[in-house]
Records
---
Amino acid sequence: MRSGSSALKHAMLFLVSWMVAQCGNELVAAVPPGQSPSFRQKNGWYDYSAYTDCRGQPEPAQYNGGILRYSNSDDPTGYKTTETGVLSPAFVVYDLNKTTMYTFSGWIKLEGSSSALVTARLAPDNSGTRCIGTVLARSDCWSFLKGGFTLDWPTQTSVIFFQNADRTPMKITVASGSLQPFTMDQWSMHQKDTIRKRRKRMATIHVADPHGTRVVGATVSVQQTAKDFPFGSAIASTILGNDAYQKWFVDRFNAAVFEDELKWYSTEPASGLLRFDVPDQMLAFVRSHRVMVRGHNIFWENQDATPRWVKGLSPEDLRSAVNTRIQSLMTRYRGEFAHWDVNNEMLHYNFYEQRLGPNATADFFSVAQDADPLATLFMNEYNVVETCDDVSSSVDAYVARLKDLRAAGAVLEGIGLEGHFSKPNIPYMRAVLDKLATLNLPIWFTEVDINNKFDAQTQAVYLEQVLREAYAHPAVSGVMLWTALHQGGCYQMCLTDWNLNNLPVGDVVDRLLQEWQTGQATGPSDAHGAYSFSGYLGEYVVTVNYGNTSAQSTFSLSPGDETRHITVQI
């Protein structure tokens, strides 16, 4: 039987030999076994910085390279190049484990092609490969790749390499590579720190008498009455007339989106036959309960989701029909919907652009902006954060399309990420959000669920991971679940059964909603007549009792770094 060290060397040599055969002679060694913990992790803070612009020179490696070390130098900004074709230099990394979050980054440049999608892939212990990050690289400048991964099992020896997605020959140069590990506790610490800074705020209640004299020892009670962060779910016509479902919904959520009722095939099943009665009733329900609502969607590029009568129209008739669609929908609901998904899933499909030309989507945005200038207009796409294996919807493809639309005059103000997850890759999810955050636009998760190929308990585990990461990321402005309830089930994931009994994912949602709100805070005013607390952003009522006297006031905690001061006179 081989010793452990012999087995490790054997595995390493096998992988190295395999990579050399595939990649040429530019293999880069990284992190030999036996390094001290201080070498592997110098501090626990995550670097949210990212770049979506192409630069003349690469920036220094994040975390000073992390656990990567080059074979010829300890300089993590060193350049490594291959001329062997579709594969690039590789990093060999040792002793990765499944209880660690790994974030990976680097700068990429090409020769032999003006631009190409480059994928960073991980080969753990010769057990296949997986995508851990992508970048649209160019030959005239450096592009930033940011991704990450977790493992299902510990590995002795793994290889990280780079691959041109379409496998055409070219030279790939990599600089400033970095692989940084974080423990689960450190990752949770990042989330809690962001929540403290972005979702909460300190407040001080000052208690005074009519003469302005501070009152010491008054009882101060603070209760949150509304949340600032939009957290909601899709609803369908099944909520109409169902009092129990309606109460269940408004007890939990402050945001809604209609599952199908606003889509073109629902509102105009035949040319000129407009049906708005159902969405009108649904809108009345959410309006009566002060629930904000997203408009989903004006157009859907998927031909299978296009009304049957629209598919056979000539380009001239189609152009007339789409203009009528925008006007009829947005004139009727002007000012009612906070958001509109203007042209859904245009990275994957092109029904309208194929027939009306490449500027069709920009025209849709312009007409929609004129029809309802107060609505925030969104792109909305799937597989941007869910996986990096979908070459159609890489984060850089999303960014490029958004920039192209804005350059063409589209007033595009929001980033929609559907969030239909299988098993989530949380470090990759955070890395994608970091890159999208560089655009300084509100980011919404618009259709979150977990694939029903998993059992109920696994769905719950994965949903909690996704929701915690989404809520904690500083660039995320809202979260919508794709959990409209039908008697026969839901699209992929139901929070309850038809009788509104919680399923495991429903328990997760209820627990997080409870966690992300300020419970009743009560205490005495101190020697300065003040009572301080940390509260989640939103609306509050404060009640002050002193002797036989009481007073009540309302206030809001809006985003801000400074302590909010409220004076209550008693």
---
Amino acid sequence: MESMAAVEMPVTVPAFDVSSRRPATAGLVLNSPNPPSLRDELVGVVGKVFRPRRANGDGGGARRCAWVLTALQAVFPVLQWGKTYNLKSFRSDVMAGLTLASLGIPQSIGYANLAKLDPQYGLYTSVVPPLIYAVMGTSREIAIGPVAVVSLLLSSMVQKIVDPASDPVTYRTLVFTVTFLAGVFQVSFGLFRLGFLVDFLSHAAIVGFMGGAAIVIGLQQLKGLLGLSKFTNSTDVVSVAKAVFSALHDPWHPGNFLIGCSFLIFILATRFIGRRYKKLFWLSAISPLVSVILSTAMVYATRADKHGVKIIREVHAGLNPSSIKQIQLNGPYTTECAKIAIICAVIALTEAIAVGRSFASIRGYKLDGNKEMIAMGCSNIAGSMSSCYVATGSFSRTAVNFSAGARSTVSNIVMAVTVLIALELFMKLLYYTPMAVLASIILSALPGLIDIREAWSIWKVDKMDFLICLGAFFGVLFGSVEIGLGVALAISFAKIIIQSIRPQVEVLGRLQGTNVFCSVRQYPVACRTPAVQVIRIDTSFLCFINATFIKERIIEWVRAEVEASNEKARERVHSVVLDMSNVVNIDTSGLAGLEEIHKDLASLGIQIAIASPGWQAIQKMKLGHVVDRIGEEWIFLTASEAVEGCLTEHKGSATEC
């Protein structure tokens, strides 16, 4: 420390007007232009999406053409990247699309079963949404189609309105209505820049929710794995355990269990080989399709269905039938459908954007979140009109697509065409496909949803986030999907409210040899300026929820400092500088709080100075006449200038630090 003091650099003090003790830069704070109004921000929200870049010297016609072209490219990114698309990329996309279809066909059938729909509806969902996304999406690797979590979410909530076993027609109608509304919500999120709604589900909540959902999905597959005829519609662990134990007393056939476990081991073994030897990644991609083919052939050859093995039986062939007339927007269940739709929309977007961004970062390009929302929403709107349910990006299929060398969304088109051909030609061959093998395919995809390592990392970094993770996990596991999400959101908002109510208020000191002020708790080497208390408010919004706490904390500290310095007249506090550099905005309660701080300090004979208030904050302070009461001469651009102004006013010196 002695050596540091020996080389102490001189502190640069801004030029002051002797008569007004204000530096030349202080007027910038009060003379800044008015910030944009709420109306200006709202008007520019949608226009930002389609606003073209204007070239200098362009005429009116050229500008209109540029606007149209930019708008079309914003809605259909294929018009932009299609210009540079070549035969080499097409070959890679064809191979990736065929590999993707080999995984997607059996998974889609299994996920349709999880959604309590007939098998063909999962295949329909792998045709139309991928085609729409291919021309509207910005991710080059993402694979669109049905996924396990959304399938579970949809079935667990819709079946509370209508039982799919007793009234499958109404159940499908509600599913298509939910899918349409989910698409509308997703498009709205993208158009009006409401992507922040997706962020309400924090990373910790998603980790816990996915882990709990994976276990619930796995428990649901016990019905197919054990060949049970009766099973509970509830998703919680307790209900499923009771259903399994009660079903074990009834006659059951071990052939289902043997088929399911054998092919589950086969799929997991090929996945291990594919990860161990990167060139053999295709083994894990085709293993589900091979499992379906082999198990179907085995059941057909041995007539195992006559001995208790549960099979799919009939799968309707042909193109997606229209379902426009089945979408009910004015029916008795529209409100319930809207509630389910917004949950499905948020979960689907969260998964898709997370998957897309992770692979975009590997390839070194940026994913446009708002365009992704619009593309995903349009895919689901079109899908709802063609007998599809909610589709989103699948992590497992996207990983296969990436490993197979996909260069663009053309791989989605190839996959959709392949599934379409399968729907036309090969559906009759699935008659003898055992339900147990579909259960094994779904079970094989679940380990990727349970991220124990990430949960452990959350525990080490932030205990409150880990509590959110546990809340979502146990809520899904012992309650329902909605309860899990509700618990996670409740804890997340509680965390936000607690941090908003009790923001950090820090005493600052100057780092020797600089004009930098920082927290004396975080940086103990920082030197506090005698007679001037510098306090920083660490909240972006000084408002009704925290104004009282901040006021009381500041007054408490100042009173304690005054009492401690009364014995030393030279160190007695005569000024308090409020560093408001972190305060972006303020409401009327915050303004009232500042006025009360000013009055309380004035009663103690202490002058208040404000340093670096945010743009919106200083504007409202002027409109609320807080600046007039404090005095324009006590508003400064930086904390350093405010300290120098206070010391100059009281004939002090800053050379001690």
---
Amino acid sequence: MQDIETCGSIKQQLAKLFRESLRVTLPGELDVHPLIAPCHCQDPKKKGDGQDSKRGDYQCNNALGLWSKFKGKGTRFEGPAPIAEAIKDNLPESEIIEKCSISPDKPRAFVNVFLSRQWIAKSIQRMLIDGIEIWAPKLPVKRAVVDFSSPNIAKEMHVGHLRSTIIGDTLARMLEYSNVEVLRRNHVGDWGTQFGMLIEYLFEKFPNGEVYDQAIGDLEAFYKASKLRFDSDPAFKEKAQRAVVSLQAGEEKYRNAWAKICEISRTGYEKLYQRLGVHLEEKGESFYNPYIPGVLEMLSKHGLIKESEGARVIFIEGKKVPLIVVKKDGGYNYDSTDLAALWYRLKEEKAEWIIYVTDVGQREHFEMFFAAAKRAGWLPAEDNKYPRASHVSFGLVLGEDGKRFRTRSTETIKLVDLLDEAKSKCKAALIERGKDKDWTQEELDKTAEAVGYGAVKYADLKNNRTTNYTFSFDQMLNDKGNTAVYLLYAHARICSIIRKSGKDIEGLIKSGTLDLAHDDERVLGLHLLQFPEVVEESCTNLLPNMLCEYLYNLSEDFTRFYTNCKVVGSEEESSRLLLCEATAVVMRKCFHLLGITPVYKL
């Protein structure tokens, strides 16, 4: 048997076997790709019962499509069922497969695959010995850019930044687990006309040039005050516009003021990122500014840029409004910056996949500038080829009134306030359960943070990112149902079972043997083994909710196993403790990929 790390997920390993069978069955058809899919049994009582179920664990679904292709062309086959039989009969020997059958669902003629209990058990035990990294999926890229969070300088991060930050972080973590080198990019808004008014207001407040973090105070208030002056005072507005020119010309006084504003903002962001456990490397709009002229010159040589009403634009087929790459006043904007950034990431950073995580309102912008990149030859015309650029769009965060989530005074909710409240509510719940009497203050604080921040993240990530979702502390902090609190409790419970057994789990991993004789053990074992393909599909589809669904279903399968299979004190204690440990290991890796800190006691 080949090692898991060289074979990949169950689907990949089965695809390899069926590819060989298809080559033998249809020697003249070299481009037939095996269509392998897991079977989804609707009856939980029969779920995973390989010996009695008619559907098996996986299916090969090629027969019907091949029959449609060959029908009436002199083939030796007389329908999809004979093709399926031939595919089944030509499968090479493998310890992975216990048996195969042909689905009775005519005319589909699926080849049903029943996996070997012994192989499932051996694969799980191998993971326990060598570590869950050997289950990392294989992706067709080596380097990716994930562009996420991206707040604007001089503005506080609010609840709208939450989705981009945690969705982007989870996508980056899943890609990193899959052995992709990820360049985590924070494309902050640190350039543009707004800096003229900020710098000029700064000079008014501090004419001697000495600026301290605490002197500016609330950056958001500073921004609003400067905007008020800009809108109400024509003389100030004129000075602010001249300040932009001085900044872009590189005058030292203005560059220093700009750098100070950015530094103060950055300090605030970093505190939030540390709380969320998010790592980012900043390459803001200003970084790409020097590259814009050269990139626009390249696009001009390709004939993409046209003059229109005093501006320079790129017309995109099917779009009413063009991309404006040089404004009427000769200045650059988001379109020009984003094109320069894409060029840099493809040509200088050699990224094969560039992923942008922003709200759904920017969808058309990305469609247009991706189309321009394809016309320039930077990206292939086909979306399924690499290098590739993808826009990961997401919906709104709503309040319980169904409107955009805001404070009662209609202000956007600051992210720092939201995290504070999540931790505070969790701590209060733990104290109510008497944990302040059993735990140290540090344990109480760390657990409240882990559960509170985890609850906020999971409540977002479990939804399909393209939809809006309603923010509710009551729902996300519920210890029942599909919530982080429930899942963290489930993990802590597994850890408690192992502790109470008194067994040395590390010694057991080395000397024990896993046996999946009971059907509920097999169900749980199979679910564990499907972890790599779920991560792979979550990455491929850029949908973190697929991993959340897997994690919740895993906890449900564990509950069914633990209800029906006595662990501590049973004849099968050693084997079942290994299954408990394997479940805990996979749950912890899921938590890690979702950016959630696991807890070991609750």
